[in-house]
Amino acid sequence: MRTLVAYASKYGATEGIAQRIGTVLQDKGLEVEVRRCEDLDDVSGYDAYIVGSATYEFNWRKAARRFVRRNVDELAAHPVWLFSSGPVGTEQVDKNGQDVLKAAEPKQFSTYADLLHPRGMQVFRGAFDHEKLRGSDRLFAWMPAIRDILPQGDFREWPVIESWAASIADELQPVR
Predict the structure, then answer these.
(1) CA neighbor of 125 nearest in space, from 95, 160, 166, 94
(2) Cross-referenced Pfam families, in alphabetical order (predicted)?
């Protein structure tokens, strides 16, 4: 089963998640390619697709959105899963009592649900390092309020990511 894990990452946390998903799928016997969305022109020839992006202000990165738009027919014709990374910190619920991961779903999840009919959509916690910020993002890093809202650290929950990837691999395994 030839599977593509396509991702859009700004500072590397989402790339790390995509790589880990690819490793789990490969360890389960699937043929896997892990590639950046912006590096992909032709995505035909795969049996399944996993597409993920970092989320900023409730939106996937442009490269991921463009990737889906360009390849919507191919993606919709095969099994597809979507993931997002973004929330940092360890809180389970936000100040309004909502589940943090549910509240962090990108707008694209609802749009792509109708277009692609994904078999699963998952939000994962991300990582944030104030020192890695560049460009206009660096301006925000020095604001005390931003440092309070965006705690620094790697909050990716590897067992959760690996379990999700393993469930995909199990679903893609041929019946014996």
Answers:
(1) 160
(2) Flavodoxin_5
Structure tokens at 134: 């560049």
Encode pLDDT of 15-57 as tens digits. Answer: 999 999 999 999 999 999 999 999 998 899 999 999 999 998 8
Domain count, the chain: 1
21, amino acid identity: I
Residues above pLDDT 70, as percent of the chain: 86
Its domain, for residue 15, covers: 2-172
pLDDT at 133: 56
Which residue reads 């697709």 in tokens? 49
Can you tell me which residue has the tokens 């993606």?
75
Q: What's 150's domain CATH number?
A: 3.40.50.360
DSSP line for 23-91 = HHHHHTT-EEEEEEGGG-S--TT-SEEEEEEEEETTEE-HHHHHHHHHHHHHHHTS-EEEEEE---SS-
CA 82 to centroid of chain Cα atoms: 7
Counting as low any pLDDT under 70, the low residues of the chain are 129-149, 174-176
